[in-house]
């Protein structure tokens, strides 16, 4: 049944290549089938064996991640992971990338990314209640970046706002390495009854297979293979492979599916994401140890004359596949009708473990599920440490290029900064350095972004975006969930293992700073071309680091996503694992944010600064230097710190908590003053000795990014109790200052070094990003 | 008393309004499906926020044709209190139950943030518990909240005291910098001539609990609960 028959060998070779398969992989297909595949089958293999669907390069490494724990209800392998949050409820969550589509068409690429991750969550029977996103772009002042940022942000807003799921947090960083390969990672969390989690399983011979949702069109054919290839200047021609989102259709699907799930008439359900109908039929059958047989002529089609090949590979959005219990079909059909959706019976479950596709009765594809899933290629790709690593890890702080004056003048001059003392800012002056860091788009307020997202719908949002981890209450309980996404690509570039450890630690620390106990994690691994041993080395080391940190901090990985081939014209992005951590607050009203609350409170530093400037935002902004090793981290100390934070919040012994990361303790202290109505602070921090030059040492003390440090504010009456708790937990803690006044003063080794007006610093921090966009009134 | 909360396909603040009525104010609440043809004994009707029918046409343009809008209109004509919030306000405009129209925000961007609102009129069932001139801090979340009315209509709205809430600075002063969307006369809420139908862009249901969004939105719910109790007491005595 090879069709088209009589193709020339050269044509076959070209066909294979166009499908992103290697000659070896094709040979494997022929062996498995015992014959040549026809074109439809070749298409099916090509998407199922693509990197995007098969994880063929990453699987051997992902298997090493810790995925178990008493709290884990569902680990990797389903549409999303789930953890137990008490009261019989489960938090269902996952992160996914939509990098490639967002570069080609920013609005739709980002919008459909949001749509896809939402489907993964409600497919599990969970009501989605929160979205977050992690974005990476090129330098904000580079041509083209603002346009990409506007498109991506508008796309996320357009989809999330319409469907009514709040975007409660996230993070954005700007680095030249992402200029031609932005990252758009989207995270969604939903709540389900733990006993009602629904899986993407097909079973029960003869049970009806239904298709529901949007009609199938020619959009997005080969999206999965596109996401598994590098970019070049022809990428714009791939626009037809980007799909168009319809949040209204998805809202109907969401409500109708949740209503259907409440009836107990379902066997299983899965969304049609990457590789569309192909992936959903194969995976559902495979998980249930069954087969699925469908007739593509029954699939609702948006265009005339679509071939079985096109129907099977289409990635049209907002479509679901579900299996009904026999005898309960009418119930399901009735619910979809209520929502003006038409569930169409397109096939049934079989016992033979084969994906069988018919077209008006005639078999057009017949492939054992196993060939598409378990038997998909698995590569142990060679990896080796690239030479750049040893080179970039060299950092001589006594031989920094003399660029500080220029860089500060650039940043600071643009903002027309002046300290309150009315003296002009001097280049190289620590005041200028602090203000320049606050103006750096990676650190500056993201209000321009998050005010475009509906972050309050569903009335659960406790900590608004910009205040640290996103925190949402769980209605019907006393509890709340804290959510954070983190990952510093610069660190991972300099040292993939340590950088990945730091990503997990920071995400979990942010959650703990809100008062929540970290319970589980999901990750999105954004890397370059895995066929290069240097990239594969970055990947392997980063996965190792994530595993070590997750084990040490007690946060199993419950799922995630891998995005490889993030390269344009051979230039790879910084390797960027984004880690999402979900934590639980037993009492929602004991939540903590980064903001100082009262004047006269003690400021306590947990942890110790060692003046580590490797890979820091300071070196980047001041010297345009990306060198050194990322901060060292002791995971046992990190865990003790996080447990202490949770206990302190629970006992109401702290008024605010903020992690010291980008820009060090100086930036963290400034951020604690912001959004407070101008509460100032004075802090006294220790000298460090990392260089001969005293100015460099001062900068290291102020802006060094040593890990496992948190700034607290504590009511005077609670200080001794709080310090006792810290001593018992073996976490270094000491009072280093006090809140109050309207200035931020930082004293290093007894010498006053920084002194700025809070309102001025806040103005610079809050307006820096806006300035890059076309100004319109209000 | 019983709240009837209309659910259009694409409504997404229906559960929030329901939660406020039922869990915060301990009143009866019932969802009304947009294809329903009666209001199931509702004493007050809320058209909630969202994107009814996706709002792919003008906001609210499709929803006004939903079957439930017949009984809602009849209820309003009998003097029944009707509150349109955000998309609900847009629907009331399209249905002709309130005058004027919405344009895109002048920033051309969706805006979600807390705004300050000065209470201009307390003679409506949704603001009677507030003081005239009181400033409420309540969130908005919309892309098309830029209220427009032709000059003569605008003049008559002002003359008839139909402007219920205006965007102001935190001290209650009119200032264009605090107008989040470019609405004419900083209009955030209006009522009809008989004052029982109110449309507002801000979301009072998002500001009913201290833990989430503050409590200034309670004023709107306290007003209607109070108004209905007055009616009930009046009927009994």
What features would you describe in this structure?
The complex is a heterodimer of chains A (778) and B (237). With 778 residues, chain A is of the alpha+beta class. Chain A contains 27 helices and 28 strands. In chain A, α7 runs parallel beside α8 and α8 packs parallel to α10. The relative contact order of chain A is 0.12. Mean pLDDT of chain A is 92; it is low at 1-6 and 418-425. Chain B is α/β, with parallel strands linked by helices and 237 residues long. Chain B has one domain: 3-Layer(aba) Sandwich (Rossmann fold), CATH 3.40.50.880. Helix content of chain B is 24%, strand content 24%. Chain B has five helices and eleven strands; from the N terminus they run βαββαβαββββαβββα. Chain B has helices at residues 14-24, 69-77, 87-94, 151-159, 218-236; strands at residues 2-7, 28-33, 44-47, 82-85, 101-103, 111-119, 135-142, 146-148, 163-168, 187-191, 197-200. In chain B, β3, α2 (69-77) and β4 (82-85) form a beta-alpha-beta unit. Chain B is globular, with a radius of gyration of 16 Å. The model of chain B has no long low-confidence stretch (mean pLDDT 96). The interface between A and B is large, with 35 and 41 residues.
Task: Describe this structure in a few short sentences.
The complex is a heterodimer of chains A (778) and B (237). Chain A is an alpha+beta fold.
């Amino acid at each position: 049944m090879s069709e088209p028959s009589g193709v020339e060998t050269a044509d076959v070779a070209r066909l294979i290549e166009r499908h992103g398969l290697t000659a070896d992989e094709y040979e494997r297909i022929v062996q498995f089938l015992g014959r040549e595949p026809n074109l439809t089958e070749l298409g099916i293999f090509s998407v199922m064996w693509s990197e995007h669907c098969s994880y063929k390069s990453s699987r051997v490494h992902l298997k090493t991640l810790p995925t178990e724990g008493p709290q884990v209800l569902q680990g990797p392998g389903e549409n999303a992971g789930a953890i137990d949050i008490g009261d019989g409820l489960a938090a269902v969550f996952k992160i996914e990338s939509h990098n490639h589509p967002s570069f080609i068409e920013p609005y739709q690429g980002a919008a459909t990314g949001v749509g896809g991750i939402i489907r993964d969550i409600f497919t599990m029977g969970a009501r989605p209640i929160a979205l977050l996103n992690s974005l990476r772009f090129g330098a904000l002042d580079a041509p083209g970046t603002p346009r990409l940022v506007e498109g991506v942000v508008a796309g996320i807003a357009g989809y999330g706002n319409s469907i009514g799921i709040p975007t409660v947090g996230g993070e954005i960083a700007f680095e030249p390495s992402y200029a031609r390969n932005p990252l758009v990672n989207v995270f969604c969390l939903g709540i389900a009854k733990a006993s009602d989690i629904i899986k993407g399983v097909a079973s029960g011979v003869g049970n009806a297979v239904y298709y529901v949702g949007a009609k199938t069109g020619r959009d997005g054919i080969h999206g999965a293979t596109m996401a598994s290839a590098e970019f070049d200047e022809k990428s714009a021609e791939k626009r037809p492979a980007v799909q168009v989102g319809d949040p209204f259709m998805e809202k109907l699907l969401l409500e109708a599916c949740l209503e259907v799930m409440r009836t107990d008439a379902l066997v299983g359900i899965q969304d049609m994401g990457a590789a569309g109908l192909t992936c959903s039929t194969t995976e559902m059958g495979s998980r249930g140890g069954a087969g699925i047989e469908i007739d593509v002529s029954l699939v609702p089609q948006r265009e005339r004359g679509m071939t079985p090949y096109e129907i099977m590979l289409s990635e049209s959005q907002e479509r679901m596949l579900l299996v009904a219990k026999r005898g309960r079909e009418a119930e399901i059909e009735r619910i979809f009708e209520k929502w003006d959706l038409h569930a169409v019976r397109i096939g049934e479950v079989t016992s033979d473990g084969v994906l069988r596709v018919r077209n008006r009765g005639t078999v057009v594809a017949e492939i054992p599920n196993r060939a598409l899933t378990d038997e998909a290629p698995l590569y142990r790709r060679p990896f080796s440490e690239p030479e750049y690593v040893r080179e970039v890890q060299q950092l001589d702080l006594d031989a920094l290029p003399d660029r500080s004056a220029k860089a500060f003048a650039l940043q600071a001059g643009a903002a027309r900064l002046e300290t309150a003392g009315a003296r002009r800012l001097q280049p190289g002056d620590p005041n200028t350095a602090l203000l320049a860091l606050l103006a750096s788009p990676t650190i500056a307020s993201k209000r321009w972004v998050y005010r475009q997202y509906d972050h309050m719908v569903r009335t659960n949002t406790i900590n608004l975006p910009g205040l640290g981890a996103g925190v949402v209450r769980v209605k019907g309980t006393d509890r709340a969930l804290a959510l954070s996404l983190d990952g510093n690509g610069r660190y991972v570039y300099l040292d993939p293992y340590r950088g990945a450890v730091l990503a997990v630690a920071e995400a979990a620390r942010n959650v703990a700073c809100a008062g929540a106990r970290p319970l589980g994690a999901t990750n999105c691994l954004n890397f370059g071309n895995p066929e290069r041993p240097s990239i594969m080395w970055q990947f392997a080391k980063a996965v190792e680091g994530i595993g070590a940190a997750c084990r040490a901090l007690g946060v199993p990985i419950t799922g995630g996503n891998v995005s490889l081939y993030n390269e344009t014209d051979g230039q790879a992005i910084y390797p960027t694992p984004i880690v999402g951590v979900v934590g639980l607050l037993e009492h929602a009203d004991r939540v903590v944010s980064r903001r100082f609350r009262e004047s006269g409170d003690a400021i306590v530093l947990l942890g110790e600064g060692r003046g580590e400037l490797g890979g820091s935002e300071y070196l980047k902004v001041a010297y345009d230097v990306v060198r050194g090793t990322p901060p060292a981290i002791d995971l046992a100390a990190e865990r003790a710190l996080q447990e202490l934070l949770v206990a302190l919040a629970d006992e109401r012994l702290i008024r605010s908590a903020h992690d010291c990361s980008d820009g060090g303790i100086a930036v963290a202290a400034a951020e604690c003053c912001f959004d407070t109505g101008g509460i100032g602070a004075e802090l006294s921090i220790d000298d460090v000795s990392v260089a001969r030059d005293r100015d460099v040492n001062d900068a290291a003390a102020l802006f060094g990014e040593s890990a496992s440090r948190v700034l607290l504010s504590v009511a005077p009456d609670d200080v001794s109790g709080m310090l006792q708790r810290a001593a018992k937990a073996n976490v270094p803690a000491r009072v280093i200052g006090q809140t109050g006044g309207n200035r931020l003063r930082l004293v290093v080794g007894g010498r006053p070094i920084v002194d700025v007006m809070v309102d001025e610093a806040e103005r610079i921090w809050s307006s820096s990003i806006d300035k890059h966009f076309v100004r319109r009134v209000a | 008393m019983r709240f009837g909360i209309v659910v259009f396909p694409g409504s997404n603040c229906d559960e929030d309004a329901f939660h406020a009525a039922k869990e915060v104010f301990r009143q009866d609440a019932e969802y009304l499906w947009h294809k329903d043809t009666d209001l199931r004994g509702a004493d007050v009707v809320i058209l909630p926020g969202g994107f009814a029918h996706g709002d792919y046409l003008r906001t609210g343009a499709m929803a006004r044709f939903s079957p439930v809008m017949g009984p809602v209109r009849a209820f309003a004509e009998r003097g029944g209190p009707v509150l349109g919030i955000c998309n609900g306000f847009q629907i009331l405009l399209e249905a002709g139950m309130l005058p004027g129209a919405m344009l895109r925000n002048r920033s051309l961007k969706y805006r979600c943030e807390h705004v300050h609102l000065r209470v201009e009129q307390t003679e409506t069932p949704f603001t009677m518990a507030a003081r005239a001139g009181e400033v409420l801090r309540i969130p908005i979340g919309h892309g098309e909240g830029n209220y427009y009315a032709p000059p003569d209509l605008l003049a008559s709205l002002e003359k008839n005291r139909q402007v219920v809430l205006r965007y102001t600075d935190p001290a209650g002063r009119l200032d264009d910098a605090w107008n989040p969307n470019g609405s004419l006369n900083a209009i955030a809420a209006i009522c009809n001539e008989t004052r029982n139908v109110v449309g507002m862009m801000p979301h009072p249901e998002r500001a009913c609990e201290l833990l989430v969004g503050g409590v200034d939105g309670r004023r709107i719910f306290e007003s209607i609960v109070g108004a209905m109790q007055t009616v009930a007491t009046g009927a009994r005595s």
